[in-house]
Amino acid sequence: MLPLLLFFLPLVYGTESPLCAECDCQLGYGNLYSVNCTSDVTNLFEGWYWIDPNDKTYPFKVVTIANSRLDRLDKQFPRSSMESLSLLNCHITYISESTFGKLAYLEKLILSHNRIENLHPKAFAGVYSNRQYRFLPLKRLYLDHNSITSLDREVFKYSRDIEILSLAHNPLQAFTMQTVKAINSLDSLKKLDLSYTQLSTLPSRFRPSATLRYLDLDGNRFQEVPTELRALSKLRILHFSNNPIVRLTKESGFPNMTTLKILHMCNMSRLLEIGAGSLSELINLEQLYLSDNEELTVIHKDAFLKVDGYQESWPPVIELYLQNNKLSSLDMELLDWDVLEEIDLRHNSWRCECQYRWMTEDLFPNVILKSGGDQFKTLR
User: Pfam families attached here (predicted)?
Assistant: First the structure.
């Protein structure tokens, strides 16, 4: 048995890429390698890193390269079987035409924490063949923490299957029409991260795909909720924390968003009041995260109330997080408390007055009962 094992080992290790001499290569499921390079990698675009002497691609699945000084990606990666490629903190400033075109199985591309200012309009195109570019199978693209101010309208023309796109922490400031058209062209987009991009408005033509379910607008400059959100007909999750809104009113509040289930509005350092009707159009809201707003003192009793003729209704909020605000009271008519399953009220300035006894006598026992007595999980 031992001689057989010794004979087999050279067959395995003899097929390793020279890349594994510089990086950590771990053999995983399906005899595919995960490669992790944490120091400067030379000859990254040389074929012998990726293709063996028999002209077969080395069995890479996930490749991560960090802290290399790549600067401009103006060459094509050789063909490879990899499905995920990360180029992190590699000082990249520019990505040229069809750089990843030969990576026919690439579904996840992470280009975070670089210095990218410009992307060639065909940066994410496949190889050029028979007078046309082939499509890349990209599904997840991360361009966060770069210096991108705009996108060419055709930058995603050959990667239309992208489902997750992150542009977070780029100085977009305002959407150019080119950028809007680029984002609108993604027919399969499900998650869009525009957090910390210095946005103060959304353009009227901002119409992402109807497949969009998750939008992150945290850390921007919105002083009111953009009415353009009403066009997102299937949106379920919205992050809107850390924006400089002072008072949320019926006029500056949320437009009709009937599919929204989860809303985050935390760390709003200037927020003083949630006014009447400001949340009334979120008729199917189930989870509200409204915490760590250090100046928030008032949630109007009609903040959620929707009146249609003689009929009144409230969203079916089942989880409510109000910790670390400056609240002193909650009105008994704020919500339909019977559907509530979890609530966090810690670290507020609650007033101990008779008119608020309903919280201790009705609200808290009801929530605890629904939890089967696990009060520490559901009531905080």
Answer: LRR_1, LRR_8
Number of domains in the chain: 2
Give the domain-ending residue among 184, 204, 224.
204
Of 181, 204, 227, at which residue does a domain stop? 204
Angstrom distance (rounded) from CA 222 to CA 236: 20
Considering the domain architecture, whether residues 76 and 56 belong to the same structural domain is answered as: yes
- In whole angstroms, what is the distance from residue 112 CA to residue 332 CA? 47
Q: Write the DSSP symbol of residue 359.
A: I
pTM for this prediction: 0.91
The answer to whether residues 279 and 199 belong to one domain is no
Give the integer Cα–Cα distance in Å for 142 and 172: 15
Over its length of 380 residues, how does the chain's per-residue pLDDT go in tens digits? Answer: 444 443 333 334 445 789 999 999 999 888 899 999 998 887 889 999 999 999 999 999 999 999 999 999 999 999 999 999 999 999 999 999 999 999 999 999 999 999 999 899 999 999 988 889 999 999 999 999 999 999 999 999 999 999 999 999 999 988 899 999 999 999 999 999 999 999 999 999 999 999 999 999 999 999 999 999 999 999 999 999 999 999 999 999 999 999 999 999 999 999 999 999 999 999 999 999 999 999 999 999 999 999 998 899 999 999 999 999 999 989 989 999 989 999 999 999 888 766 667 666 667 666 654 445 454 444 45
